[in-house]
Structures are given as C-alpha cells and as structure tokens.
Amino acid sequence: MNRELISVIVPCYNEADALKYFFEEIDKVIAKMPEYDFEAIYVDDGSKDATLDILRERASADKLTRYVSFSRNFGKEAGMLAGLKAANGDYAVIMDADLQDPPSLLPEMMALLKEKKCDSVATRRGTRKGEPPIRSFFAKCFYGIVNKISKVKLVSGARDYRLMSRRMVDAVLSMTEYNRFSKGIFEWVGFKTEWITYDNIERVAGQTKWSFWGLFKYSIECIVAFSTAPLAISSLCGIFMFMLSIVGALAIIIRKIVDSYSAVDGWASIVCVILFVGGLQLLCIGVLGQYLSKTYMETKRRPDFIIAETEEDLKD
Ligand code: UDP
Ligand code: MG
Q: Cα–Cα distance between 154 and 163 in angstroms, integer?
C-alpha cells in the first residue's frame, strides 16, 4: 500500500527562540506516527532574527525539512499560501511555530479525519483565558457582526491550525484573490469539517505579532472580503434619510399653510442635522472606498509573496 504523505506547514516570523522547541515537538509527533511520511515546510516570512539561519541548518541536517524564505515580510496569510503551494502531501496541516497550536494534537486530528471521513479537521480555542478582556470583547463583537452579514460562518476562537485533505488544499489554492482571509476561505470552500476544542496555550518564546490595530484592520479586511452588506447598509441609510427629508419638508409646508409659521430660531438643530448628514455621507463614501481599494489591489494582480530562497538553493 502506498504510504501517505503529510505536509506540515509552519509560517515563521522572527521565531528564532521558539523554533528549537518546535523542532523537538514535531520530531516527537513524527516518531508517534510511523505509518505516515512527513515533510515539514517552514515559511520564513522575512524574519529579522536568526530564523533563516536556523532553518538552513535544520534543512541541511534533516531531509524531511524544507523551507521557503520570502524577500521581505508579507504577512502570515502569504506565508500559509506559500506553504500550501509548496506542499506535496496527501494531507496538509498548518501550525504556528510558537507551539500555541500543539503539534501533539496531530495524531488525534488525523484519526478523527479518517474516522469521520471528512476533508478537514480544524481547531478552536475553548476559552480566551490569558487574553486581555478588551480584546476578547472586540473579538466577540466581530464574530457577532461577521456572522450576521456574511455568507460564510466563522467559528469564534477558530485558529488557523487545520488539517486538510489534498482536494481541500487544491480548492483553497484555486481561490486566487489577493486579499486573502484564510479563515473565511476555509469555510467558503466547504467540505466536511470536524472541530477539536482545546484550551488557550501561551507562546513558548518570543512575542505575538498582533497589535490591537493590526487585529482591527484584519477584521475590516474580513468583512470586506466576505460580505457586501456594508454597501447595502449605506444605500439603505441613504434611502432612509431621503424619506425622512421628504416627510420633514411636507411637515414644514403644511405647518406654513395651516398656521403661517415662520422658522427663525432652531439654527442649532439645523447645524446638527447638517453635521449628521455630512458625517453619514463621508461614512458611506468611506465604505465605498474600502471596496474600491480592495478592487484596485485585486486588479493589479501582484504576487502574494516573493521567494528569495528555498532549501533547493542549499544544494549548489
Ligand atoms: N507570522 C508570520 N508572519 C507575520 C506574523 C506572524 O508568518 O507577519 C507567524 C508567526 O511566526 C507564528 C504565526 O504566524 O508562527 C502566528 O503568529 P502569532 O503567534 O504572532 O499570532 P497569535 O498566535 O498571537 O495569534
Ligand atoms: Mg501565537
């Protein structure tokens, strides 16, 4: 019988401190799953520390290790995409280098995939323990809004740690958009997915690359990528304001006829109305601008990442 190959994809950005722990863990997992072949593809996302040197060293010592190194930092989305493109496996699994996605869960994920005959086993955090409360609050709001207005349903606390069959990987790769939001893409392509829940785990070393502002921009990107509801909402606001102004105008005319009322005072309220309408218009133009800017970036057809070096380069 043909042995099946599992591709482990690890996006790494400044993970020099975490990688040694990761290698230890992944070696343990590979030893625990002798019935499968493995390849580990590390994507160095333009790290500024010794990450690339560590990967070079590991790749020359360990034949299962491959790596792709970007010419600069392109972000985790680009890293995951590059890993999936490079993967040769019958299965591919994406996991973080900081051990927040415990590699030791892989045998269980693989068993579940086989047992349920599904195409994907994904993971989510059961709790948001160890996260600042304000961050949890915004995360909750975000999931609430997104799941209301977009067609894809995002699972709260879902991580990018996910095992996928070859046909699901091919489906994900067939989505060629430039503005990638993987959590949405994984849901959009469909296929049967099983979920495993585990407790939040702290990073082994190094620091998270997410700032609050970074997360905020990421959530706007998600909404723009998977929903056009904000456009519809701004049109609805426009229609509502238009109707309101007609009703207001009628009221003034009728009052004028009935008791010859003359509007002298009330300029403060007029200023309020002007500010309100002006603000609403800017907001709606801003919403439009978001979509336009995404369309602009898509039409440029820029590559998602540029590869500077891979393990093949070590051979010469
Ligand atoms: N990462 C990356 N490129 C980036 C930022 C992060 O490849 O620009 C990688 C990082 O090395 C890690 C994973 O993405 O393996 C998750 O990053 P992080 O731990 O900072 O995110 P968190 O776990 O806090 O959501
Ligand atoms: Mg992390």
A: 17
pTM of the model: 0.82
User: Mutate which of 209, 215, 217, 305 to test ligand 1's pocket (most atoms within 8 Å of Cβ)?
Assistant: 209
| Total domains, the chain | 2
Q: Which element (helix H / strand E) includes 89?
A: none
Do 187 and 209 lie in a common domain? Answer: yes
Pocket of ligand 1 (CB under 6 A): 11-13, 15, 45, 73, 75-76, 79, 96-98, 100, 208-210
H or E stretch covering 121: strand 120-125
The pLDDT tens digits for 131-188 are: 778 878 888 888 888 888 887 888 888 889 999 999 999 999 999 888 888 888 999 9
Owning domain of residue 238: 229-300
Q: How far is the CA of 131 from the centre of ligand 2 (A)?
A: 12
- Tell me, in angstroms, the distance from the centre of ligand 2 to residue 172's CA: 23
Q: Residue 10 has which token pair?
A: 């690890």
Distance 273 CA to ligand 2 centre (A): 47
